[in-house]
Design goal:
It contains 16 helices and 11 strands. By secondary structure, it is of the alpha/beta class. Bound molecules: nicotinamide-adenine-dinucleotide and magnesium ion (MG). The site of nicotinamide-adenine-dinucleotide has 25 residues, from helix 1, helix 6 and helix 9.
Length: about 400
C-alpha cells in the first residue's frame, strides 16, 4: 500500500468526529490524522491532539488557541483559528480526505472549500448540502472532488446502487429510493404529551447516540426532511422518487427499488462506524469495530407508513424541495434557530415545526445564483426565526 491518507476531521469532538477517529485508529497504515477541529470542549480536543499528534488543530477563538497551546507544550501541532483555519485544513495540499462533521450551517464554507479543492469529501454535515445543493454539487463536478455520504441512509442507498452509478438515477433503472426512519423517541407518545416534552426526552434516541441538534431533528423528523433533500442532490432523485418508510428497529438503513421490481437493501447494526468505514476505505472494505448483525435476536423487522400529521416537518421537507432555490436554506436556518430555542427551553417542542413553517411562508423562494444568495437566505431566515421565537415564548 502507498503512504497513509491524510485525514482532516472538521468537528472532531462530536459524535461523528469521534467515531471517525475510532475507525481510523484501527488502521494506522491506511490513515494519518493530519488535522482536527472543534468549537468547544477544548479539554477533549487537547486529549485528541496528544493522542493523535495532528499537524494542525483548529479552534474558534484566539483565547482557546492560547489555552490549547499551553496544554500541547511539544509544539508538534500548529494551532489555527476561525473560518480561515478551517478552510486551510480543508484545502491543504497534503490533506487527502476531509470528514465534514461540523453540525449545521457553520460547516458550509469549509465543506464547499474542500470540494473546490478537489478533495475526497466524506459528508456527514447534511445541512451544507441541503442549503446549497446545486452550488455544492457543481463544485464537486467542476473540481473533480469525490463525495461520499456518511448519513447512514444515504450511505446505504449508495451501497445499493450499481458501481456504474454516475450521480443521476436516470439510466440506472431505479424506480424509487426508500429512506428508512426510526420515528425517533416520540413515534408512539400520545399527541397531547408532545406539548410538554423536554430537551432530554427529545435527545434520548431509541437506537442512535448522536449530537443534541440532530437528536432533536430526529424527534421532529426534520432530520428525515433534510435527508429527503440530501437524497435529491446526492442521487438526482425527484421528490416523487423518494419515499420515507418508518422502520423502528433501524436495521435496514435504506433501500433502492429497481424497474424490474427488485428491492436492494443495506442492513447492519445501528452504528455510524459502518458508513464511516465504508466511505473511508471506499471502494475497499475494512474492519470498523462493529459486531455481526444478530438477526435471531432482532427477530422481526417492521415497516410503517409515516404519520404526516404527527410529523409535519416531513411535509416541509418535500415542500422546500419542490420550491427549490433558497427554500431549503430557509428551512434549514429556521430549524437551527428553533432547535436551539427548544434546547434552551425558550420554545415548546411542537412550536419548532410551526415556527419553521411560518418562516417559510414569510420567505418566498428566490433563485440561487451563488453562495452569497444561500448565505443571505440563511441570515434572513435566522432573523425571522429569532423574532418568532420571541413572540412564541411570550405566548406561553
Ligand atoms: P455533535 O454536536 O456531536 O458535534 C459537532 C462538532 O462540530 C463538534 O466537534 C463541535 O465542536 C463542532 N462545531 C459545532 N458548531 C461549530 C461551529 N459553529 N464552528 C465549527 N465547529 C463547530 O454533532 P454530530 O452528531 O457529530 O453531527 C455532526 C453532523 O453529522 C451533523 O450535520 C449531523 O446532522 C450529521 N450526522 C450525524 C449523525 C450521528 O450519528 N451523530 C448521523 C448522520 C449525520
Ligand atoms: Mg441519517
Amino acid at each position: 500500500m502507498s503512504r497513509p491518507q491524510n485525514l482532516a476531521i472538521l468537528g472532531a469532538t462530536g459524535s461523528i468526529g469521534r467515531n471517525t477517529l475510532d475507525v481510523a485508529e484501527r488502521h494506522p497504515q491506511r490513515f494519518r490524522i493530519f488535522a482536527l477541529s472543534a468549537n468547544e470542549r477544548m479539554d477533549e480536543l487537547a486529549d485528541l491532539c496528544l493522542r493523535h499528534r495532528p499537524r494542525y488543530a483548529v479552534v474558534a477563538r484566539s483565547a482557546q488557541a492560547d489555552a490549547l497551546r499551553k496544554r500541547l507544550e511539544s509544539g508538534f501541532t500548529e494551532i489555527l483559528t476561525g473560518s480561515q483555519g478551517l478552510e486551510r485544513i480543508a484545502t491543504h495540499a497534503e490533506t487527502d480526505c476531509v470528514m465534514a462533521a461540523i453540525v449545521g450551517a457553520a460547516g458550509l464554507e469549509p465543506t464547499i472549500a474542500a470540494a473546490r479543492a478537489g478533495k475526497k469529501v466524506l459528508l456527514a454535515n447534511k445541512e451544507a448540502l441541503v442549503m446549497a445543493g446545486p452550488i455544492f454539487m457543481e463544485a464537486v463536478r467542476a473540481h473533480g472532488a469525490t463525495l461520499l455520504p456518511i448519513d447512514s441512509e444515504h450511505n446505504a442507498v449508495f451501497q445499493c446502487l450499481p458501481d456504474s452509478f454516475s450521480g443521476e438515477l436516470r439510466g440506472h433503472g431505479v424506480r424509487r429510493v426508500l429512506l428508512t426512519a426510526s420515528g425517533g423517541p416520540f413515534r408512539d407518545v400520545p399527541l397531547e404529551r408532545l406539548h410538554s416534552v423536554t430537551p432530554d426526552e427529545a435527545c434520548a434516541h431509541p437506537n442512535w447516540v448522536m449530537g443534541r441538534k440532530i437528536s432533536v431533528d430526529s424527534a421532529t423528523m426534520m432530520n428525515k426532511a433534510l435527508e429527503i433533500i440530501e437524497a435529491h442532490w446526492l442521487f438526482g432523485a425527484t421528490h416523487e422518487q423518494i419515499e420515507v418508510v418508518v422502520h423502528p428497529q433501524s436495521v435496514v438503513h435504506s433501500m433502492v427499488e429497481y424497474a424490474d421490481g427488485s428491492v436492494i437493501a443495506q442492513l447492519g447494526n445501528p452504528d455510524m462506524r459502518t458508513p464511516i468505514a465504508h466511505a473511508l476505505a471506499y471502494p475497499e472494505r475494512i474492519e470498523a469495530g462493529v459486531g455481526s448483525l444478530d438477526l435471531f435476536r432482532i427477530g422481526r423487522l417492521d415497516f410503517i407508513a409515516p404519520d404526516f400529521a404527527r410529523f409535519p416537518a416531513l411535509k416541509l421537507g418535500y415542500r422546500a424541495l419542490k420550491e427549490g432555490g433558497t427554500s431549503p436554506a430557509t428551512l434549514n436556518a429556521a430549524n437551527e434557530i428553533a432547535v436551539k430555542a427548544f434546547l434552551d427551553r425558550r420554545l415548546p417542542f411542537l412550536a419548532i415545526t410551526a415556527l419553521i413553517e411560518a418562516v417559510m411562508n414569510e420567505s418566498p423562494a428566490r433563485a440561487l445564483a451563488g453562495l452569497d444568495d444561500v448565505i443571505d437566505a440563511d441570515l434572513d431566515a435566522r432573523r425571522h426565526a429569532e423574532i418568532l421565537v420571541g413572540k412564541m415564548s411570550l405566548q406561553r
